Amino acid sequence: xxxxxxxxxxxxxxxxxxxxxxxxxxxxxxxxxxxxxxxxxxxxxxxxxxxxxxxxxxxxxxxxxxxxxxxxxxxxxxxxxxxxxxxxxxxxxxxxxxxxxxxxxxxxxxxxxxxxxxxxxxxxxxxxxxxxxxxxxxxxxxxxxxxxxxxxxxxxxxxxxxxxxxxxxxxxxxxxxxxxxxxxxxxxxxxxxxxxxxxxxxxxxxxxxxxxxxxxxxxxxxxxxxxxxxxxxxxxxxxxxx
Length: 242
Prior knowledge:
The protein is an all-alpha fold and 242 residues long. It is 83% helix and 0% strand. The chain has helices at 8-12, 16-49, 55-101, 103-116, 121-131, 135-146, 156-180, 185-210, 215-241. The longest helix has 47 residues, at 55-101. The radius of gyration is 26 Å and the shape is elongated.
């Protein structure tokens, strides 16, 4: 008895492109959440350390900021995702309407786009005829090559909200963790600064590598931004608090 052979349709069902796009969006959301989570609560805790004498107050205010910040960041990510979906839908409706109402103008735009790609006149005539024969494919072509829009995943908005919120909360707990283990805000600030700056260097390094930027420069830049924010908050708190 022979083993059943894998059919061509089964081989064609490759989930890799969708997984690749999903993981890319998730990495972007993690970067957004972590970068703000590491810097904003760190700066807040540093500012409070220069104004209060109790680590408990720093912890309470820090936890409140992390909760509020994670909700705000998650909501921002959700609204951004929904806006992208709504913008795409609006442009899609407009392209469908233009294909119905002014087809000759749209054909001329297709021809112009193909000319920009370097196609000869004879090839363009045949390509325009084939592309515009199916209104759905015609509109998809215009959306991608005229407007530069890819259809967004309508489920991405809630996923982004959750990912950004959790990443922000995780990032915020890192600088705040030192205050749980020290007796005074000053001691907490020293350890918080050391821990957070190391995390910012590591995070900046890998973030820059993922985005194709010089990793060492990216690591230093991330750490400098966090340090400056914390120093400014600490100095202002000291000046106001006397």
